Sequence to fold (309 residues):
Amino acid sequence: MGFFLETLIGGLMTGMLYSLVALGFVLIFKASGVFNFAQGAMVLFAALAMARFAEWIPQLLGIESPTIGSITGFICAATVMFILAWLIEKMVLRHLVNQEGTTLLMATLGITYFLEGLGQTIFGSDIYKIDVGMPKDPVMIFENIFSGGILINKEDLIAALIAAFLVILLSIFFQKTATGRALRAVADDHQAAQSIGIPLNRIWVIVWCVAGITALVAGIIWGSKLGVQFSLTTVAMRALPVVILGGLTSVPGAIIGGLIIGVGEKLSEVYLGRFVGGGIEIWFAYVLALVFLLFRPQGLFGEKIIDRV
Fold:
């Protein structure tokens, strides 16, 4: 029982990180109707900016404090992501208002390859380290209840708590604020939102900025765990099954879907891996997403769309 709970908790913590990345997909889709394939590249670009600025700025100032490096690196990386969001809206999205979804999708693919190339040009292609002071030592809990206790990684626990806090904060922002309601109105109908005075360009800048911040936090967490490298793009894209499972238009769906995928990956790796071979945790989520596409394509919490002709 102790080992099962250890695996379950590990899956829930991983699932919160998936939810954080998936939230970026959902926010942009709700605001613009665009499935943003560039979200994974944004996670990578933000992590590269954080890692390199945290290294460069203390060297320029002649300071050898990791804390100052982390703080200044985060501020500079957040500034870069805000500028990036503004440039994407001004140079790409503004010219594609009311275009077909396929056109917008191809635009995000172009942004993906541009960000990957730009990140490699500016920041380099080596593996970089992000150190934000999170403890990496495991801790044993519930030793008096279960034989041998339950082993928890402190870094995973803190990362999951940070992700959970940000997810809750963004959910409240999206549901309870005037800007959040404006975002939902833009998602429903661009032209109708413009007709009642909602500034479409400003809304898109806001939502891309929010998606950039979620990408930055996700990049810092994954970069701290795995190192900042170009494989972070594929890690972020593993959140795709999460949005399929939860629904492209649902913030709660991104949360629940992330938890389901995280737990499913861990349990399948431990209990099914011996029967189907290694690597099941890599493809398990995509098989589950395929099943949902066959039987419930709108996801658990997505809205069913009916076209009347």
